[in-house]
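Write out the bound-state structure for NAP.
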Amino acid sequence: MVSRVIPVDAFDLVIFGGTGDLARRKIFPGLYRRYLAGQMTAESRIIGAARAELTDIAFREMIAAAIDEFVPKERIDAATVAGFLERISYVPIDAKGDSGWAPLRAKMRPSIVRAFYFSVAPSLFGDLAERLHAHDIADKSSRIVVEKPFGRDLASAKALNSTLADHFREDQIYRIDHYLGKETVQNLMAVRFANILFEPLWKSEYIDHVQITVSETVDVEGRGAYYDKSGAMRDMVQNHMMQLLCLIAMEPPYHFDPNAVRDEKLKVIRALETVPSENIVRGQYLAGGGDGSYLEHSENPASKTESYIALKVNIANWRWKGTPFYLRTGKKLRARASEIAITFKAPPHSIFDDVQGARENVLVIRLQPNEGMNLIVMIKEPGPGGMRLMQVPLDMAFADALGEHSEDIPDAYERLIMDVIRGNQTLFMRGDEVEAAWAWADPVISGWEARGDKPQGYDPGSSGPEDALMLMHRDGRRWREIKG
Ligand code: NAP
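---
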């Protein structure tokens, strides 16, 4: 039913930061799975690069261990792993130095797709871009992949864009937002634009409100000092949640073409209203259950950085005037779950006298866990006793719908890397999109900084600060209960 795997062209892919956490947890295991699936062909080569002085053999051992740790056992096949490792080599390179570049250049083959994954701190992006050019390694068709965070405000994002633009054209730059690589997120576009069912209703006339939730159970996981400079708004809302909002709110592009899709997303971001302080709730998790508080983890007892944020966002255009988008995300919450819920308005007139409780349709798109979609519809409650109505979900878990093939669904990183090789930028953020998102986020952040607002404490394992409930209640709405 699924997965017609179409092999991509042979490539030379250099992973800068090849020994790092992201490379070991996501990039190499993902590439292995694409090799196993037959999408990465035997002619392709992957070159790891970092400062550590490693031999090819030592690096391959590191990657073998990463596959062992991060790929499910049933997907590990010894002969395939050996074949995959043969395609991997390593070059010691310091992004800020000039040694190592000549050996890297010697590894590049002519007439083969060249891609360079910058899986290093953003402060090194400029050095890498510059040296790839200075040493004549990148050519006109080479692609670079850059990781988040892409700036921490508009000024730094602009500076980063301009540094990369000194050496690469926009159509060579792939800014990763791994949320866009998720199966369900892309399905959002299929649901909207490949069915006649929803689009006629997709406007404020029929949609009451939209909720976007990214709820985590983890704390700042030993990254407290780093996270403290960011916070939930920069780490989640400005990028991932903004992308989800765009896919729900955008107009139909004229074609499923990278620039057509991104043009429409950009229009949404530009139409976002500035968020007034009464539509923002920020929180910090307290100590509990034997675990430390945010302030302990951040090592900054005076920190005002938020580990939780809820926002009511309005889009100033014809389609969405009057339909708020409520966004919430946080750490140390009750459940690990990400979902988008589109709540339709109740029918304008009910012919049924005795309707108890909610009577609206809700389309729920689950990003994790258990990716799938759920359309909540009203039916008659079974049994005798008259016409009583109840809400039931029409549930489509992808794992059930796709059966044994569901394991073949590539994870976000796999899909996005294959898109880089194919030269398809649809699921990557364009420079102007990132800048527009910061232009919206900056005044929101500087507003609470100028007011000196302190985040509200919330209990670990809860659903967030009390005031976040009020954000909904005062509009006569409520958050959906999040189940992991
Ligand atoms: P990490 O574990 O700290 O790894 C950093 C990598 O960069 C290492 O391989 C390191 O190896 C290399 N490196 C450091 N300085 C270098 C230099 N001067 N020249 C060449 N290589 C250098 O970081 P990470 O977690 O993998 O993150 C990498 C990037 O992905 C960051 O931009 C991060 O924000 C982003 N990201 C990470 C995750 C994640 O889950 N980890 C998620 C989203 C985004 P040497 O020290 O040997 O040089």
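---
The pocket of NAP is lined by residues 16-23, 50-52, 93-96, 119-122, 124, 147-149 (CB under 6 Å).
The chain has 15 helices and 15 strands.
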